[in-house]
Amino acid sequence: MDRIVILGAGESGVGAAILAQKKGFDVFVSDMSAIKDHYKGMLDDAGIAYEELQHTESLILNAKEVIKSPGIPDKAPIIKKLREKEIPVISEIEFAARYTNAKMICITGSNGKTTTTMLIYQILKDAGLNVGLAGNVGTSLALQVANHNFDFYVVELSSFQLDNMYNFRAHIAILLNITPDHLDRYEYNMQNYVNSKFRITQNQTKDDYFVFWNEDPIIAQEIAKRHFDSKLIPFSQLQRDNIHVYVSDEKLHVDINEDPFEMELSRLALSGTHNLYNSMAASISAMVLHIEKDDIRKSLSNFQGVEHRLEKIATIKGVQYINDSKATNVNSCWYALESMKTPTILIIGGVDKGNDYTEIESLVRKKVKAMIYLGMNNDKLHEFFDSKVPQTYDTSSMAEAVKQAYDIAEKGDTVLLSPCCASFDLFKNYEDRGHQFKDCVKNL
Prior knowledge:
It is built from 17 helices and 20 strands. With 444 residues, the chain is of the alpha/beta class.
């Protein structure tokens, strides 16, 4: 019996363990952190051996193959030892895909991927397709492959997941944009990160589709250097000779097959330029899969949005509070600020991943009346922004940040949590940060 070891006992790791056991492997799970009770219960119920708070090398280095959680970096000592012994290390997505013939609709990009993923899933589900939601959202792909028999999966893929995918093939690969992010994991080399994102197109054939934003300079540069077997479908706000998905006369046009699709922009549920691109990518996927045009329009106009992404929480004394905790990089914050129509108090800060704040400088100068720094170390924020906004404040808890915003906000202002940074200094993750913000606002 071949031995598979799974590193990390979160959503993806436990799903991979259950699928591996179902497929007859000798399975062991190891996590350097404490395993959550929920996942321990799943492993116990399945009778799968595991350890926590350590990696016992004698139980790991005898594996035929290792499935690694996306959160574990390649520089982790146990990964280096596995590489030295030439034991293959793969992702949960790569493993799960071996055991399903479902068509994969895959979404990556530095920003917008969760919204686009959820939007495509909603369209397919509303149209009655037998579809699962996986990757960075939903239940782990491996667990769904173990327990269901879907015809389609809509999969949000981070660069970390793509890094350990080799034979996986996306039927529709969507690349929304590429801006600097996670450079600490890529030796501060942008090309390494770009290469990681382009892995979404690997193994595609002439029967597959590569969908991308035409105006992204990094994507354009890479496409010029690479060969693709798949059908390329660029989308743009501008109508040009080679662009068949564009905006004209206040309508979204998708002209990629014999039966073109169009929809008034005013009917789209999601507003803002970035969300227009998300709606374009979703429309292309739906048209490729021959979903009825009326069904596409209905889903695009009824979509509710994604928690922690420009989520309107409340209006208190004429001040609107918006939770954009999912903005863990500078470009995400740019999109949020770009959509602000009122004077803004911006809550920013956390674990800096090598951020370049010049990208949001002009929007901050134009729209932000005050900045509230929320982090263990705000030195870099002070250095960059103190001279560019009228007021700045230091805080070290969400309650303090929200109270400070409330004290200085005036009727007609917007308080925006759009941190630009990872959350791990003060919070468990960006969801915890967003929930704390919502709780604090509701307690005002």
